[in-house]
Design a protein that fits this description.
The chain is an alpha+beta fold. Helix content is about 40%, strand content about 20%. A six-stranded mixed sheet has the order 1-2-6-5-4-3. The structure holds 5,10-methenyl-6,7,8-trihydrofolic acid and ligand LAUPNLSC. InterPro entries: Thymidate_synth/dCMP_Mease, Thymidate_synth/dCMP_Mease_dom, Thymidate_synth/dCMP_Mease_sf, Thymidylate_synthase, Thymidylate_synthase_AS.
């Protein structure tokens, strides 16, 4: 994972102090590229323990075309909770304690944090138990799952069907591997305003040469300490899955970043991680057993030989 540590060092050394939407403040560079050869092992962070289980359940959620956090809540995956919760506490129906700016206040205000945790637990319980509530407040809008599997409603004006970009990708890779048009985009300008968060991993392209399958991602905005380790592993897993589906061997993941930033409250954690020696990479195996990648469950994907340094905690910017 030297590539990742080099990115961290580069941003610490040359990053510019920049304000951001969340009000946290960042050190930021614009434009950076990393390459991961998947033949050398599975690129999950070894310099801090990273929750692979959460990465798997999020990717399978995208692949099923799901955009409702209920599925993630049921799988005990909290990574999208804040963005659904935000919609709930800003709604007219919410009558609990004031949760304005909860993301910024919770890490620094002990008394508020207790209140926030109570409200968040209530919210999750209701998402899990109340169908109508989950349908309204669990849904993040037309985020990744919608764009990947069902891009563009368009039906009323054009009479066209929504596009299953992943099915088309698999089809194209099988039937026309040399094509330079193996592209999937989550960036749908006409639906951005309805999304809880505009897509960060916005567009990717697949490529086949020598029987190997590679993918390059353009990520417009990259939270280096929290988001990027998840994104690298998620796309590496996506390449493995698409390779199984198309009879190819995993090649390279090329990760191209736009605004690549370290949040000001992650700088110490990044420095701690930089003192650690990378270890041997783990490997993964996938049990397809006649299933398509759209029907997999988390237990079908198994990680072995993962011996990371301990976890490093950090607050997430909402
Ligand atoms: N500021 C920000 N950074 C992100 O990376 C990010 C967002 N926002 N918003 C949407 C999604 C949600 N993602 C997330 C959210 C939380 C974790 C997280 O809490 N990771 C912890 C581990 C959690 C655990 O082990 O329970 C970590 O330490 O990596 C990771 C990715 C990635 N995205
Ligand atoms: O997969 C993801 C999702 C989100 N992020 C980070 C990047 C930014 O820090 C925030 C999004 O804020 P914007 O103001 O919309 O750019 O989330 C990530 O790194 N990876």
């Amino acid at each position: 994972m030297k590539q990742y540590l080099d990115l961290c060092q580069h941003v610490l050394d040359t990053g510019i102090q920049k304000g951001d939407r969340t009000g946290t403040g960042t050190l930021s560079v614009f434009g950076y590229q990393m390459r991961y050869d998947l033949q050398k092992g599975f690129p999950l962070m070894t310099t801090k323990k990273t929750a692979f289980r959460l990465i798997v359940s999020e990717l399978l959620w995208f692949l099923k075309g799901d955009t409702n956090v209920r599925t993630l809540v049921e799988e005990n995956n909290p990574i999208w909770d804040e963005w659904a919760f935000e919609k709930w506490v800003n709604s007219e129906e919410y009558t609990g304690p004031d949760m304005t700016d909860f993301g910024r206040r919770a890490p620094v205000d002990e008394e508020f944090r207790v209140q926030y945790k109570v409200e968040m637990e209530h919210f999750k319980k209701r998402i899990a138990e109340d169908d109508a509530f989950a349908e309204t407040y669990g849904d993040l809008g037309p985020v990744y799952g919608k764009q990947w599997r069902s891009f563009g409603t368009g039906a009323t004006e054009t009479g066209r069907q929504p596009i299953d970009q992943i099915a088309q990708l698999i089809d194209g890779l099988k039937n026309n591997p040399d094509s330079r048009r193996h592209i999937v985009t989550a960036w749908n300008p006409s639906e951005i305003e309805d999304m809880a968060l505009p897509p960060c991993h916005a567009l990717f392209q697949f490529y086949v040469a020598d029987g190997k399958l590679s993918c390059q991602l353009y990520q417009r905005s990259a939270d280096i300490f929290i988001g990027v380790p998840f994104n690298i592993a998620s796309y590496a897993l996506l390449i493995h899955l698409i390779a199984l589906e198309t009879g190819l061997v995993p090649g390279e993941f090329i990760h191209t970043l736009g605004d690549a930033h370290i949040y000001s409250n992650h700088v110490n954690q990044v420095k701690e991680q930089l003192t650690r020696e990378p270890r041997e990479l783990p490997t993964i195996s996938v049990n397809m057993e006649g299933k398509s990648i759209f029907d997999l469950t988390t237990s079908d994907i198994v990680l072995t030989n993962y011996n990371p340094h301990p976890k490093i905690k950090a607050p997430i910017a909402v």
